[in-house]
Each structure stands twice: as C-alpha cells, then as structure tokens.
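Field reference: sequence -> structure
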Amino acid sequence: MTLPLSDYTVLDLTIARAGPAAVRLLADWGANVIRIEPPPDAGLTDFTGGRLSPDSQNLHRNKRGMTINLKSVGGLELFMKLVAKADVVVENFRKDVKYRLGVDYDSVKKVNPAIVYASISGFGQEGPYSERPGVDQVVQGMSGLMSITGQPGEGPMRVGIAISDTTAGMFLGQGILMALLHREKTGEGSWVHTSLLESMLSKLDFQGARYTMAGVVPGQEGNNHPTNSPMGVFHTSDGMVNLAASTNKMFGAFAAAVGQPDLAVNEKFRNARGRVENRHELWQLVNDITQGMSTTELVALANDAGCPCGPIYDIEGAFEDEHVRSLKMRRTTSREEIGEFDLVRSPINMSTFPVDDHFERPGPMLGEHTDEVLLELGFSAEDIDRLRQAGAI
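Structure field:
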C-alpha cells in the first residue's frame, strides 16, 4: 500500500541523533528521504560507530544516501536543484554553519517558497546560548531533568537513554507534519524549529508546571512516584517489580488481595494524602508483603486486583516478553555485507496500514545512492562524472 508520506521528498542534512530521529519518522511512513552528507574526503567521522552498526542502521533505515560538497560552488548549486523539487529540508547544524554554507531558510526559500524547512539545535535559534553546541547529557543537566532523576541525596543522575535527542526529534517530526498540513491549506512554506532544551523543558510536564504555577521545586524521589503512594519499585522473592496501588480503590483492592485488608482502613493510609505523608512507612509495609511472593505471582495478583504491576526487565527481557513479541516491535531488513537483521519499528499504528514484517531498505552506506538520485533528477552519466571530477559530489 502507498504510505501516508509517499508523495513527499525530504532532504536530510542532519547528523548525530536528534535530527536523524525526526527524519526517521518521515522515512518510516513512506517519505522519499535523501540523506545528504559530505564526500569521503571531508574526513567526517560517523559518531554511530560505523555504517553497519546497529545505531546507524536503526537511525537511517528507509533513507537513501548521497554525497554533496556544500562548500563547493557546484555542490551548492546541485543542492539547490534538489531543493527546487523537494518538500522538506531538515538540518541540525550549529546556528552559524547553515548561514556560512548558504543553506539557511531564507536562502532555500528563494529557490522554493513552499519549502518546509526544519531545524533542531541544542538551545534554540535565538537567545544567549543559541551559538553553543548542545549534546544530550548537557541538556539533561541544564533542563533540570538530572536534578529529579536518581536516589535522594546521591546527586544528579542522567536518564539512561538519549532522551533530549530523541524527544527533540519527535517534536520536530510533529512540527514538520503540522507545517505540511498548513501548506496543504495555504500553499505557504514554513520554518519549523525546536531545540533539545525546549523539548526537555516541555517534557518535564507536571513537575515543570508545579514550578511555573506554584513555585515548587521538585527533587529526587528515586524509584518512588513524586506525588502518589504506594507507587514505585518493590522487592519480590526473586526480583523486583513496579507496582501502582495509589488510589483508594486500588489500595483497598491490593490490601484485600494480599490478605491485609486492615492496611486500607489504617488511619495513616486510608486516604491519598495520608499515604503520601507516610509513604516511607507504607513502602516498608508493602515491601515486607511483596518479598514473600515471586515476581510472577505478584504481577498476576496485583493486575487481577486492578493495580498496574510489572516486572523490571533488562533490554533482553523486554524484547523477549511474550506481549512485546506479539506487538511485533522488531522489523527485519538486510544488507549484503551482513545479511538479515532486526531493527526497532515505529511505535505508531494505523488501522489502514497493518504492521509490515520488513523495512523497505536498510541504512545507506556513504554516498550509496548518489548516482541513482541524480539520474532520477535527469542528470546524465556524463553530467555525474563532471560533478564528481569537480568535487561537487
């Protein structure tokens, strides 16, 4: 079936993770994505650890790759010819780089007024820090995220994934889709941009709003929920679980299910406020109960009582769980160099597009599709040779 974005061509100038994550959303849903990189003699290093690494393949699947030397006159001219026929340009250069190269929004808009130009930066396009380079962990710290992550009193802790990179990529992908919808109605192109810092401040959600609205500065709560109890990590006889039994109904049901109905009517725990105020005592009482049960037993009992509960897996355990396997989150692709392998699919599901078992294409090697893309644009083999000899590709 024709995927929702199959009519759109995207020029991908992004590097690192945030920009490629945004473009991956478009590629997975059918966009004709052309990943544009400098030629091999530019000496740039692939931060993912190699074209055939899991990281590179997962970030760049469903894209085609070509090389253009944007620093050359011929390369810039060639890029603008691509722009004239494209719908979207995505970049995550440092602020000054796109202007120095001449591929900024105003320059691109002169060639294609209807273009959707999309940017990710570390700190935004304006402001005192807009010229700074930005990476995920630095932004985790500056956004306040690390101050609320980890055990109380043990100092700040980074989240275990590149959360500001991937979050900014998600938000930019949404912004691109909104800009395309706006263009469908008006014919007008847009510059849509976000940053790692803006994305993480938004991601703080209720903890951020507690500060902006009430002046409350949340701190670290470790594995406990910041405002509900009991909700957090509890030990079992053979491991640990996450358990949520924080509402009056859930706590009453849980107490009855484990044979301790008096807990739910105890003066300290009979309402939500009391359970939060006495959370440390309550955690110990609940933990004493859960330690006498296996993980499997507790997960089944709690869920049957209407209390969300699940085991704490490592990555292997997560992907091998029977429910995760039924969700088909792994999707297969292949390259001649390494054979068949699985990557992680888009989490978006649409009734009109059943989950496919295979990605259309693996991540490209450097410049793998340069000739293919140029031939599609009407360049002859002789034209391509001349571009190569001139150092434009």
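Note: The chain has a mean pLDDT of 96.
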